[in-house]
Write a structure and sequence with these properties.
alpha/beta, TIM Barrel, two-stranded antiparallel sheet, 8 helices, 39% helix
């Protein structure tokens, strides 16, 4: 009998576009358990999706779609005013494209995790969160939603009967309400490797994360996000896996 815990490490991948390259997907892929593949709206293109799906399948990594607002120039990080119907259409359209490549390669779509502003908007907007959950449900009963821990997205998934995995971030700082500190704000990104690893271990073991102003937020993460486009991402991935192993956690997709 073992007391070993399991935690998923997910990474946003396939975000290169044409001749523009982002991240070292081939090197990081063996160190994670779930890959969120860009669908073309903020990064990625058909050839990149196909190649990233193959990388994931060869490594035995669970494959998810990473849909975004239609904002290629802004990398999906600029907030837009959209309706709940827009949310449903964007998620279903993009995830369906990645799902087609996965099926063609003999695999199955494991999850959906929205990107950037689309993710952050649905974290606090019940209407957008509900539309996101309905789109994931339309993809099939086994497709999971990766959602910010403690957010409206989690609530919406539960109400819709969609399997949900609560996500936490090792390299992002948190606000008092459990939302992520907006990018561009001082301290939004945790660039110190040791601090990021320590935050991840605290979230997994204690179920809490420090927030702005000196408080804390309770959460139950089933997956931890690793940003593959950050400087030193490969080194951080190795450090995170080693720390999790040292604290009795194995890395495995849900």
């Amino acid at each position: 009998m073992t007391n070993e815990k399991c935690i998923d490490i997910n990474c946003d991948m396939g975000e290169s576009f044409g001749a523009w390259q982002m991240g070292d997907d081939a090197a990081i892929m063996p160190l994670i358990s779930s890959a969120n593949i860009a669908c073309g709206f903020h990064g990625g293109d058909p050839a990149t999706i196909r190649k990233t799906v193959k990388l994931a399948m060869d490594a035995g990594v669970a494959i998810g779609a990473h849909p975004s607002l239609p904002d290629l120039m802004g990398f999906g990080r600029r907030t837009m005013r959209i309706s709940a119907q827009d949310m449903y259409d964007y998620v279903l359209y993009q995830a369906g494209a990645v799902g087609a490549f996965v099926r063609a390669a003999g695999g199955r779509l494991h999850h959906v995790k929205c990107h950037g502003a689309l993710y952050n908007m649905a974290a606090t907007d019940a209407g957008l969160a509900g539309a996101m959950a309905r789109a994931v449900k339309a993809l099939g009963p086994d497709v999971m939603l990766y959602a910010l821990a403690g957010s409206r997205m989690v609530e919406a998934a539960v109400l819709a009967g969609v399997p949900v995995v609560e996500e936490a971030f090792a390299d992002r700082s948190y606000q008092a309400d459990g939302t992520l500190t907006p990018r561009g704000t001082a301290g939004a990104m945790i660039e110190d490797e040791a601090q990021a690893v320590q935050q991840a271990i605290g979230m997994v073991e204690q179920g809490t994360v420090a927030t702005a102003g000196g408080g804390s937020f309770r959460l139950r993460p089933g997956t931890i996000c690793l940003h593959g486009d950050q400087p030193g991402a490969l080194r951080f991935a190795n450090a995170l896996r080693a720390a999790l192993h040292q604290h009795g956690s194995s890395v495995k997709a849900p």
